[in-house]
């Protein structure tokens, strides 16, 4: 496991006080990824998507990007396609276009 940054410890403490805060949950997932704790970050993004699939378009994008950066194009494509569908359903064409661009880079 990667060493926890001060920011990560702060986010964990805040989340302990308000475990349902989706903004904190997303922030902690990203911080885990930044700290090099890839599996923890991905697990947190997956949990956020599972709990709030309609509202967490950014989580799909970050999870897909994490897989792409790790050289896992098939996994990235699955996540990104799901995220694109959610983004379009929400009318978030900008997010959909960003994910489509990333999907195109996968080959």
Report on the structure:
This protein has 107 residues and is mainly alpha-helical. The chain has two domains: 1-52, no CATH class; 55-107, no CATH class. The chain has six helices and no strands. The chain has helices at 6-17, 22-34, 38-51, 57-69, 73-90, 93-105. Helix 1 (6-17) runs antiparallel to helix 2 (22-34). The longest helix is centred in the last third of the chain and has 18 residues, at 73-90.
User: How would a crystallographer describe the biggest sheet?
Assistant: none
- Termini separation: 31 Å
Q: Report low-confidence residues grouped into runs of 5 or more.
A: none
Count of helical segments? 6
What is the rounded Rg? 14 Å
InterPro entries: TPR-like_helical_dom_sf (IPR011990)
Protein name: Tetratricopeptide repeat protein
Task: Give the gist of this structure.
This protein is an all-alpha fold. It has 6 helices and no strands. Helices cover 78% and strands 0% of the residues.
Q: What secondary-structure arrangement, pairings included, does this model have?
A:
Elements: H1 6-17, H2 22-34, H3 38-51, H4 57-69, H5 73-90, H6 93-105
List key phrases describing it.
107 residues, mainly alpha, 78% helix, globular, TPR-like_helical_dom_sf, Tetratricopeptide repeat protein
């Amino acid at each position: 496991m990667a060493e926890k940054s001060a920011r990560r410890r702060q986010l964990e403490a805040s989340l302990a006080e308000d475990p349902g805060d989706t903004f904190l949950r997303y922030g902690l997932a990203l911080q885990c990824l930044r700290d090099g704790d890839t599996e923890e970050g991905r697990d947190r993004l997956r949990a956020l998507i599972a709990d709030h699939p309609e509202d967490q378009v950014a989580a799909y994008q970050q999870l897909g990007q994490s897989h792409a950066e790790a050289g896992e194009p098939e996994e990235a494509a699955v996540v990104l396609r799901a995220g694109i569908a959610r983004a379009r359903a929400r009318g978030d064409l900008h997010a959909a276009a960003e994910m489509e661009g990333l999907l195109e880079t996968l080959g």
